[in-house]
């Protein structure tokens, strides 16, 4: 697909791509999105604000704790752990490259550490066996953050059911230097996929 010559044409193609993705199976979203971007690379950035990829989980070897890997903590092909603040896997070209990877300001990093401990306690209580992460980044007039929960149905709990719950809560905080008030804007997305086997081997209920 050729790159559009005008902003109006780009908007039209973006709307068409979103309409197509909405009609395809949600559990195949990531595969379908990658295929679409391969056909029309110029749509990658225009689709990003409207499409939430399924969350993945990685292990932080330094802290031996799992964390959510997604677009909000990605820099190139590596992801930043909220527990140690380091990228996993490490940068290919050593410390010099690692120092150039994105990190929040010192103030936000301290706030991020607190948010992760509190959010981890919350998800442990309400989402047994889940993995949660919080990532913050600076804005011109405040900051923004992503609060993420990834929960998979345990195979030990049920052999005939498979399920995944992905919750993405993005908050934008606008701070005013001349006021004690802050303005908050929250956007939440929940992706649920559930498969339940029927009485016979060829019967499966697939809900997304």
TrEMBL record:
Functional description taken from the UniProt entry: F-actin-capping proteins bind in a Ca(2+)-independent manner to the fast growing ends of actin filaments (barbed end) thereby blocking the exchange of subunits at these ends. Unlike other capping proteins (such as gelsolin and severin), these proteins do not sever actin filaments.
Name this protein carries in UniProt: F-actin-capping protein subunit beta
GO cellular component: F-actin capping protein complex
Swiss-Prot/TrEMBL GO biological process terms: barbed-end actin filament capping; cell morphogenesis
MF-aspect GO terms: actin filament binding
Keyword Cytoplasm: yes
Coiled-coil annotated spans: none
Gene3D superfamilies: 1.20.58.570, F-actin capping protein, beta subunit
Protein location: Cytoplasm, Cytoskeleton
Keywords: Actin capping, Actin-binding, Cytoplasm, Cytoskeleton
């Amino acid at each position: 697909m050729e790159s559009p010559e005008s902003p109006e044409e780009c908007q039209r193609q973006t709307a068409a791509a979103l309409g197509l993705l909405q009609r395809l199976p949600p559990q195949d979203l990531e595969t379908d999105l990658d295929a679409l971007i391969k056909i029309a690379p110029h749509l990658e950035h225009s689709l990003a604000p409207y499409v939430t990829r399924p969350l993945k989980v990685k292990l932080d070897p330094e802290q031996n704790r799992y964390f959510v890997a997604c677009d909000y903590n990605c820099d190139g092909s590596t992801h930043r752990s909220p527990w140690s603040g380091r990228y996993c896997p490490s940068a290919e070209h050593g410390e010099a490259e690692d120092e150039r990877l994105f990190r929040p300001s010192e103030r936000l990093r301290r706030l991020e550490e607190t948010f992760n401990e509190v959010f981890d306690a919350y998800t442990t209580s309400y989402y047994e066996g889940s993995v949660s992460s919080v990532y913050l980044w600076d804005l011109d007039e405040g900051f923004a953050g992503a609060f993420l929960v990834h929960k998979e149905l345990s195979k030990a709990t049920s052999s005939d059911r498979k399920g995944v719950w992905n919750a993405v809560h993005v908050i934008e905080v606008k701070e005013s230097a001349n006021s004690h008030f802050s303005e908050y804007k929250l956007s939440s997305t929940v992706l649920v996929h559930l498969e339940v086997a029927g009485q016979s081997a060829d019967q499966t209920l697939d809900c997304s």
